[in-house]
Design goal:
By secondary structure, the chain is mainly α. It contains two helices and no strands. 57% of the residues lie in helices and 0% in strands.
Length: 119
């Protein structure tokens, strides 16, 4: 195989519906997964520990801090609901694309029925 200097060529498809790299979102999905996992780790270990060490009674001077924390958590819950909504849309888009691909007619010739020998 020495002297073989040919390099593989990327063939381009004339129709954008068959642009395979456009449908390969694994790297982006993995980035999103890592971000969510990191946040859940932070939330489960750092925040939960901080919340579990709260005193039974909160002094009046720190009530403002408590209210700010509650407001931040409420705002975060709204954003989590938005993320859930976006994930639902993501799933629906994928389902719609699958339906379009799976239900589209193909250019393959129809298969002829094979008969049993002697039939």
């Amino acid at each position: 195989m020495e002297g073989n200097t040919t390099t593989p060529t990327n063939t381009t498809v004339a129709h954008s519906a068959f642009d395979v790299p456009a449908f390969d979102a694994r790297a982006r999905y993995q980035e999103i997964h890592t971000e969510i996992t990191d946040f859940l780790h932070y939330q489960s270990h750092v925040r939960l520990f901080a919340a579990s060490s709260l005193p039974a009674e909160i002094p009046e001077l720190q009530n403002e801090d408590r209210n700010r924390i509650v407001n931040l958590l409420c705002e975060e819950n709204k954003r989590i609901k938005t993320l859930k909504w976006l994930l639902d849309i993501w799933e629906q888009n994928n389902t719609d694309i699958l339906d379009a691909y799976c239900n589209a007619p193909t250019a393959d010739p129809p298969q002829q029925q094979q008969e049993w020998p002697g039939a």
